[in-house]
Amino acid sequence: MQPALPISLADLRAEIDRIDTAMHELLMERGQVIERLIDVKKTQVSGSAFRPGREAEMMRRLALRHKGLLPLDTAEGIWRVIIATFTWVQAHYAVHADISGGDGPMRDSARFHFGFTAPYIAHD
């Protein structure tokens, strides 16, 4: 067995860049699938794109397979943004929030669950 070759900082950064490019390619591929899904479901016409049970199952699978250095709550946050954004792409929606208890906590909760793509509309 040969000893491991030393790895340079430049090599590690190149590997990170390769992974980032692959993740971006996969997100764009996911978008192409969503375009076909819109055609099949006609969600932009019906406005019905929310599937809480499906989203919960996706998050359960994510949690079950998760391992490594990245904290699970960070991975969950990334997936929430991906899911919410592609749901918004299927059928545009806005997040309406009762801010009678304070805008900050409600806004933070809405952004955690729905990301920043969907408009956030506060109501007193």
Tell me about this structure.
By secondary structure, the chain is mainly alpha-helical. The protein has 5 helices and 2 strands. It has helices at 9-41, 43-46, 52-65, 72-90, 103-114; strands at residues 95-98, 120-123. A two-stranded parallel sheet has the order 1-2. Helix 3 packs antiparallel against helix 4 (72-90). The longest helix has 33 residues, at 9-41. The radius of gyration is 19 Å and the shape is extended. It starts with 8 loop residues before the first helix and ends with a strand. The model has no long low-confidence stretch (mean pLDDT 90).
Shape: extended
What is the helix content? 55-70%
Residue-averaged pLDDT, rounded? Answer: 90
Q: Please give the number of β-strands.
A: 2
The parts where pLDDT drops under 50 for at least 5 residues are: none
Q: Helical region count?
A: 5
- Mind describing the biggest β-sheet? 2 strands, parallel
Question: Distance between the terminal alpha carbons, to the nearest Å?
Answer: 68 Å
Radius of gyration: 19 Å
Oligomer: single chain
Give the spatial strand order of the biggest sheet: 1-2
Approximately what portion of the residues adopt beta-strand conformation? 5-15%
The helix-strand sequence is: HHHHEHE
Which secondary-structure class do the elements indicate? mainly alpha
